[in-house]
Write a structure and sequence with these properties.
Elements lengths: L2 E5 L5 E5 L4 E2 L6 H11 L9 E7 L5 H12 L3 E8 L5 H5 L3 H4 L6 H9 L5 E5 L2 E7 L11 E6 L13 H10 E9 L4 H9 L3 E6 L6 E6 L2
Parallel strand pairs: 4-5, 4-8, 5-7, 8-9
Antiparallel strand pairs: 1-2, 2-3, 6-7, 9-11, 10-11
Length: about 220
């Protein structure tokens, strides 16, 4: 599938899949979307705590890198697991401008290490941040009550509806600890119904720039 690096409206880059006309992040702002959906409405709920995070769609590493930066401000200890079936190539990662756009030049080595580290191995990026990248299809996830927070950042329902199925959300529900949260940019009715069917309580929140709404699901 043909891929290209494009600039989004906030100046940060993303990968565009031409055949699907689908991007890894919002065209309205890759960094803005990550900060609004996953940090403001997810990570920030766990200030001053140890947090175990599962990311569905590690992709470019943007969400993981922003989490690393923000967790220091929020006084958090992070155990981060990113699941990706089709890893982004080193050449593509080096074309991303996230370090510069986030004014995080002092953490350039961390961003590189996130992508250069081996898959399926735990890597200590700092005293308070451990990363494990799992090369895995989403339907193979079988964790039980392991995570406090899930970043659900799969490709959109329009192009991959199977990733938003009741079966996948059952796996997400199983993977969360009681009182755990799942945040996603999505706000389709069919997605909400699947979440509710497996036992989630679902909130509709204001979406990131360019999107009216998003969902946050809670496990009771």
């Amino acid at each position: 599938m043909e891929r290209e690096i494009i600039q989004t409206l906030d100046g940060s880059t993303t990968i565009h899949l031409k055949e699907w006309d689908e991007c890894y992040h919002s065209k309205h702002g890759a960094i803005q979307e990550a900060q609004h959906v996953f940090i403001k409405n997810g990570l920030a709920l766990f200030e001053n705590k140890s947090v175990s995070i599962l990311e569905i769609g590690f992709g470019t590493g943007l969400n993981a890198f922003i989490t690393f930066l923000e967790s220091k401000k929020l006084q958090q200890s992070i155990d981060y697991v990113g699941v990706e079936a089709y890893p982004v190539s080193a050449d593509e990662v080096l074309s991303m401008n996230y370090v510069a756009e986030l004014n995080a030049e002092t953490e350039t080595a961390i961003f590189k290490k996130m992508h250069e580290s081996n898959w399926d191995e735990q890597v200590k990026l700092s005293e308070n941040f451990v990363l494990t990248k799992r090369k895995q299809f989403f339907d193979a996830i079988d964790d039980i009550e392991k995570f406090d927070l899930i970043y659900f950042d799969a490709f959109g329902y329009r192009v991959q509806p199977e990733l938003w199925s009741t079966a996948i959300f059952q796996k997400m529900h199983n993977a969360l600890k009681p009182q755990g949260k799942l945040v996603t940019y999505a706000a389709r009715g069919v997605v909400k119904r699947s979440m509710i069917e497996v036992g989630f309580t679902v909130e509709k929140l204001a979406g990131p720039p360019g999107k009216r709404e998003m969902f946050r699901a809670s496990k009771l």
